[in-house]
Design brief:
The protein is mainly β. Among the domains are: 18-135, Tachylectin-2, Chain A; 339-527, Jelly Rolls, CATH 2.60.120.560. Helix content is 3%, strand content 47%. The protein has 3 helices and 38 strands. β34 and β35 (479-484) form a beta hairpin. The longest helix is centred in the middle third of the chain and has 7 residues, at 302-308. The chain binds 2,5-dideoxy-2,5-imino-D-mannitol. The site of 2,5-dideoxy-2,5-imino-D-mannitol has 13 residues, from β1, β5, β15 and β20.
């Protein structure tokens, strides 16, 4: 890898060059996946005033062709930037985009765009009608926070609705608008959600999930018994949170299933406990699943972005469904990732003793897919959990003893000077067990100026009943995505190991708990390199 390529991913979505942030308007249409994203065509920085919608297409969610910009800041209603938004596929198959424009006075307004030629299979060109903005900024919006329209859904009354985050008189609100034609919109008096604690919310996503099974539902699916809804919001400059609940499609209101968490989104469940933002899902009608995209920002220095000429990747697309508990989501990399699997190594029934380190050799592990099932033989050894630790789960990750820490060490240099550990600890809590999942970035790179926190989240599983715990980890040069407890807790973060520029990396199983841990099964695959937005490659469509 040349210095320029250092950190570029092999199978994650990223443009060939320049800046990318939020995922925008994903949809499936006539056998093709469309993906748009906040894109600065002029360089590797955020580029206020310059943001466009980059557009790429794929036949398999793995290989992508870049089509250029679908929306550019060229109209009075988006002259200062085409900001985030969503797409909706109408019943006749025509897609429509709703997005936030920053107008000539930098005021945030909502706009629509339609395909110029709906018969173009790639929908390359988009038309912004002159009746935009279709929703000017309401008078009671404060802080110029009015942005990121969601995918629209059809209510029982035949009207379309979408949700949008707005600061209404200082209160962070998720507003609902209704329309018959996508042009004339009326605001519902009651928001889906409102909280004074976080005034500036972003990137609302609102969608139905089935109470049973892993199949996804169309965003406009009938709101009948057995259907719940998910409200996902991004807390500006922080993280993504969600709440499962019930949607009343007559009143356009939302009742949380975990009301006890309150209205402050920071007390809701996390999409990912690492560093990931602006998640947005879509319904994939071809495979009847809901798929989630999310932006994973750079966490090295700003000058590194400039030197590399690019910044920002997307998390690998994840299928998502509701867990049987009716409260938490389960996320799992879409199955198409398996088309990239090359050499495989496996372990069956291995034992990792206290203090043990076991190398997974035989594959190149800078781009890999690893699945492990740990068996926990002696829960009796679990340390007692102190509820005040809930304030600082990250601190818990740095201690050892009892059951765990055990897990993986990824992107490690030969001398282990650089290493990123992803692991579990199990605690006894009343008559139950509490599982903590951690990603420790403190030694991920010897480089200065890199963000190296410890990320942590609890895993809602019944480890006593299951007696096992699973971990899946995707490694791709500068990103590590982990799915604990079958995808109930996710931790994603960027890593910048210096050794990777010139050498290969190592992967280990480790156990620093006081008892031994049994690995009932480990499978690790080296992954091939996908064709992602290479400028000189023709369309890799299925
Ligand atoms: N990014 C967009 C906004 C959105 C923010 C601008 C979230 O529309 O609120 O690029 O990252």
């Amino acid at each position: 890898a040349s210095r320029h390529d250092h950190g570029r991913t092999a199978y994650h979505f990223q443009p060939a060059k320049n800046w990318m942030n939020d995922p925008n308007g994903p949809f499936y249409h006539n056998g093709i996946y469309h993906f748009f994203y906040q894109y600065n065509p002029h360089g590797p920085t955020f580029g206020t005033g310059k943001l466009s919608w980059g557009h790429s297409v794929s036949g398999d969610l793995v290989n992508w062709a870049f089509l250029g910009a679908a929306l550019e800041p060229t109209s009075p209603f988006d002259a200062d930037g085409c900001w985030s938004g969503s797409a909706t596929v109408l019943p006749d198959g025509r897609p429509v985009i709703l997005y936030t424009g920053r107008d000539t006075d930098t005021v945030q307004v909502q706009n629509v765009a339609f395909p110029k030629d709906p018969t173009d299979p790639l929908l390359r060109e988009w038309h912004k009608p002159s009746c935009n903005p279709v929703i000017p900024q309401p008078a009671d919006v404060t802080g110029n926070n009015f942005r990121d329209p969601s995918t629209a859904w059809l209510g029982g009354d035949g009207l379309w609705r979408f949700s949008v985050a707005a600061e209404v008189a200082g209160v962070g609100s998720t507003l609902v608008y209704r329309s018959a034609d996508f042009l004339r919109w009326e605001r519902n008096a009651t928001p889906l959600h409102a909280s004074p604690d976080v005034p500036a919310l972003e990137c609302a996503d609102f969608f139905p999930v089935a109470e049973r099974g892993t199949e996804g539902l169309d965003t406009s699916a009938a709101n009948v018994a057995g259907v719940r809804h998910v409200l996902k919001l991004s807390n500006m400059a922080d993280e993504d949170y969600y709440m499962v609940g019930w949607y009343d499609d007559a009143a356009d209101t939302f009742v949380p299933a975990e009301g006890e968490r309150g209205s402050d989104v920071r007390k809701w469940r996390r999409i990912d406990h690492g560093h990931l933002f602006g998640a947005k899902s879509f319904f994939d009608a071809s495979k009847k699943r809901r798929v989630l995209w999310a932006w994973v920002d750079e966490t090295d220095g700003h000058s590194d972005d400039v030197a590399k000429g690019w910044a920002g990747i997307q998390a690998f697309p994840r299928a998502l469904w509701l867990d049987t508990d009716g409260k938490q989501l389960v996320q799992w990399p879409v199955e198409e990732i398996e088309t990239l699997r090359r050499r495989r190594v496996a372990l069956l029934g291995a034992e990792v003793g206290s203090g043990g380190l076991h190398e997974i050799a035989g594959i190149e592990t800078q781009q890999a897919d690893v699945e492990v099932i740990f068996e926990i033989p002696k829960l009796e050894a679990a340390e007692k959990f102190d509820p005040k630790w809930l304030q600082d789960p990250g601190k818990l990750c740095s201690e050892s003893g009892g059951v765990g820490p055990f897990g993986l060490i990824a992107m490690a240099s030969g001398d282990l000077q650089e290493q990123t550990a992803i692991f579990f600890r199990v605690f006894k809590h009343d008559d139950m067990y509490k599982v903590l999942m951690c990603m420790d970035l403190t030694r991920s790179s010897t480089k200065e100026g890199v963000y190296k926190p410890v990320h942590a989240g609890f895993v809602d599983v019944n480890v006593e009943k299951d007696r096992s715990l699973s971990l899946r980890t995707l490694i791709d040069h500068s990103v590590i995505e982990s799915f604990g407890g079958g995808g109930r807790t996710c931790i994603t973060a960027r890593v910048y190991p210096e050794h990777a520029a010139t050498g290969s990396s190592h992967l280990y199983l480790f156990n620093n708990g006081s008892g031994s841990v049994k690995v009932s099964k480990l499978e690790a695959w080296e992954l091939g390199t996908a064709s992602v937005n290479l400028e000189d490659v023709s369309l890799p469509l299925a």
